[in-house]
Design goal:
Layout lengths: L6 E8 L2 E7 L1 H6 L5 E5 L7 E4 L2 E3 L4 E7 L3 H7 L9 E6 L10 E7 L3 H13 L3 E8 L8 H6 L3 E6 L6 E2 L2 H11 L4 E5 L2 H13 L4 E4 L15 E4 L2 E4 H4 L2 E3 L5 H32 L3
Helix pairs in contact: 5-6, 6-8
Length: 286
C-alpha cells in the first residue's frame, strides 16, 4: 500500500533526537546543501522547518533529524517506520554557495551538526580541507560523529562537562585552531549565542564566515516574520533570504534580544496552557 511521505528508517541518535529517512523522490532529486523542508504531522498541525541532512537519489529518499523539544516535534518523534507525515514541502531556502576556499573550519554546536553536515560534504567534494569542531553539552548529545569524521581531515570534539574530548566551548577550540593553522573560511551552525561568539573569534582573526539562521525559523515562508534579522544593515528573512548569511554582517545582538522575547512569550503561553489544564482537572470542564 502506498504511504505518502513514508518513513523508511528511524533511528534514535541521542536522548530526544531521532533520524528519519523519508521516501521523497522529487525533493531528493532537487535538493541542494543548505536547503530545508516544512513538515506537518496533520492537516491542522504546526509547520516545522527541518534541514535536509542528506539525500539518496537512487532510493528517492531524504534524511531529516528531529529533536523532540515541543509538542509537535514530540508527536513527530512518535511516528514509526511505515507511517507517513501528513505533508513535506520543499526543498525551500537558498542553497549555500560552495567554492574551493582552501581550508574550511566547520563549527557545530549541538544539533547544528545536522544542517552543517551536508555543507561539509559539498565542501569536501569541491576539494576543500575540512577541520571540524563538534561541540555538545556532554558525550551523550554528540550526534553524527562518524559521518562528520569520515569527511573531516581533522576533528575536535568539545563538551561542556569534559565527558569527551576537550573540556570547554567550541570558541576555545576555534581559537586554538585559527592560531595554529591558516583558515580560509569558517562555517558556523548552532544556537544563536554560540554562533555570535564563534563569529567574534573568526572575525578577530580575519577569517570570513558563514552562519545558518535555521534555528530561528518558524513558518518557513517569510509571512510570520519570526525569522526577521538584520544583515549588513538590511532586514532579511532567514527562510526566504537564507538560511545562510555572512556571519560578519549579522546583527547578533538584535537577534538574541528578539529570540529572548519569543522565548518569554512561549514560556508565558505554556504557563497559561498548564494553568487552564489544572483548572479543568479541578472543575471537570473540557
Amino acid at each position: 500500500m502506498y504511504v505518502r511521505n513514508e518513513i523508511l528508517k528511524k533511528e534514535q541518535l541521542a536522548p530526544s533526537i531521532f533520524r528519519f529517512v523519508l521516501r521523497e523522490p522529487v525533493i531528493a532529486n532537487h535538493r541542494k546543501p543548505g536547503q530545508f523542508v516544512i513538515v506537518r504531522t496533520s492537516e491542522e498541525g504546526e509547520r516545522v522547518p527541518l534541514t535536509i541532512v542528506d539525500s539518496n537519489k537512487s532510493e528517492g529518499s531524504i534524511t531529516l533529524i528531529v529533536q523532540a523539544v515541543g509538542s509537535t516535534t514530540q508527536e513527530m518523534s512518535n511516528f514509526e517506520v511505515g507511517q507517513g507525515f501528513h505533508d513535506v514541502a520543499g526543498p525551500l531556502g537558498n542553497p549555500v554557495e560552495i567554492e574551493k576556499f582552501g581550508t574550511v573550519l566547520c563549527i557545530a554546536g549541538g544539533l547544528g551538526i545536522a544542517p552543517l553536515y551536508p555543507i561539509m560534504k559539498a565542501l569536501k567534494k569541491r576539494g576543500n580541507k575540512i577541520v571540524t569542531i563538534l561541540g555538545a553539552r556532554n558525550k551523550d548529545l554528540i550526534i553524527l560523529r562518524d559521518e562528520a569524521e569520515s569527511i573531516s581531515d581533522r576533528m575536535i570534539i568539545t563538551t561542556d562537562d569534559g565527558s569527551e574530548g576537550m573540556k570547554g566551548l567550541v570558541t576555545e577550540a576555534a581559537e586554538l585552531v585559527i592560531t595554529n593553522e591558516k583558515i580560509n573560511k569558517a562555517v558556523i551552525i548552532g544556537p544563536p549565542i554560540m554562533m555570535k561568539f564563534s563569529v567574534d573569534v573568526t572575525k578577530k582573526h580575519g577569517v570570513p564566515s558563514i552562519v545558518s539562521l535555521n534555528p530561528i525559523m518558524v513558518d518557513g515562508t517569510g509571512m510570520c516574520g519570526g525569522c526577521r534579522v538584520t544583515v549588513g544593515g538590511e532586514t532579511k528573512f532567514a527562510c526566504v533570504d537564507g538560511p545562510e548569511f555572512d556571519g560578519d554582517l549579522v546583527d547578533f545582538n538584535e537577534l538574541l534580544q528578539r529570540s529572548g522575547m519569543y522565548r518569554e512569550k512561549e514560556k508565558e503561553a505554556s504557563l497559561k496552557k498548564n494553568h487552564v489544564c489544572r483548572l479543568s482537572n479541578v472543575t471537570g470542564e473540557k
